[in-house]
Amino acid sequence: MSQQKPGPPETSAPDGPAAERKPTFGDIFGNREAATFLAAFCLSNAGAMLNRVAVTFLVWNNTGSSALAAASFAISFAPYLGLAQILGAVVDRYAYRNVMILCDLLRAGLVALLLIPGLSVPAMMVVVFAIAAVQPAYSAARTATLAQIVTGDALPVAIALNLSASGMAQIIGYLAGGLLAAVDPYTALAANAAMFALSALAVSLFVKLRPSVNKREERKHVLVETGEGLKMLRDNRVLRTISFAIWGLYALAAVPEGVAVLWAVHLGGGSIMQGSIMAIDAAAAIVGLLLFSRFVQPALRDKLIRPLAFAAPLVLATALIDPPLPGVIAIAIGIGLSTAIMAPLNGMFAQCIPDGWRGRLVATVNGGLQLCQGAAIAAVGFVAELGVPVPYVVGAWGLLGVGVMALVTRNWPDAEEIAQAKAAAAPVQV
Q1: Which residue of 132, 173, 198, 303 lies most exposed, with the fewest beta carbons within 10 A?
Q2: Which domains occur in the chain, in start order?
């Protein structure tokens, strides 16, 4: 594919002291395009979460089958097993903003199909898979679009806002989905379709069209382009190392939330205790992202990534003492706060990818992230199923994580190498 670079951003950083000013959340909200993008993402993400709850409830309500209800939820992760990477290559062929709009409209239309009275469960599963298959393309296009709207040191701040908004939208989507589904699952699905449609409208009206830099006549087979993206990720040491750090951190951070039900049972609690552990974990993650991105200087944030990568596994390792509920809550808070480095990690990753390649690389990293999270939770759950108490399994996972992070950060690229990777990926000025 062509590696032609687009022209420079429409606004450039000023010279002098103003250029060294730390970007703030106000800068992001003051940018109408960035603010609208964030609002549209919240609508779309909340809609995706609402959809999971509503569909699961609808399947359970129609069949009374726990297995089918669980399958309707789990199927939303299936596209990350290979389809996501191919979709990433397709995303790079078109304007990222247009891909976002198309994905939201497709999902709105597909959700509308679920409103058909008497739709069979197999047909529902097909539609649910189709909705889920659109998500990787949307996520890749969304990240690529954000990197076009916001550049430089402001990008990690914008990413922190997006990740925090994602967490809030997830909570709101789950709660709204549960409340609406309890009243009428079809009402929940109708609201879901409307949210996707509104998101598409907001992006189409307020996010600028930036054509793909990849020329149509230079396209190759989509599988070849997918392979080229995987090769770039493998051969670029900066991108490869950051990817490993992201995968490792999420494989660790997902555990307290993923095994919250088992931990609650271990402590003699029920669903309220389980929900408390999960909610506190999510809330701490939001707080950590916002505080770290707002109050820590960009240069210091990058320097802290390497030592703070050990925070999550060390926090998990404290589970070996089999703490009571306050200790488990403290672990959940610690794990949530430890994910604060995700904003600079994601920002660094996006800045090191040339325009025209972000769809493939973001889709690949997102796919790996989902698989690492799922594998980690499944592994911990499997060992606990063998009779090992949950705290000891979680603590051992933390000790293993210390070793993993030591391997990942051992040859962490220095500031000069990262700067060179960013410069190589930056659009050339013409």
Answers
A1: 303
A2: 24-207 (1.20.1250.20), 223-430 (1.20.1250.20)
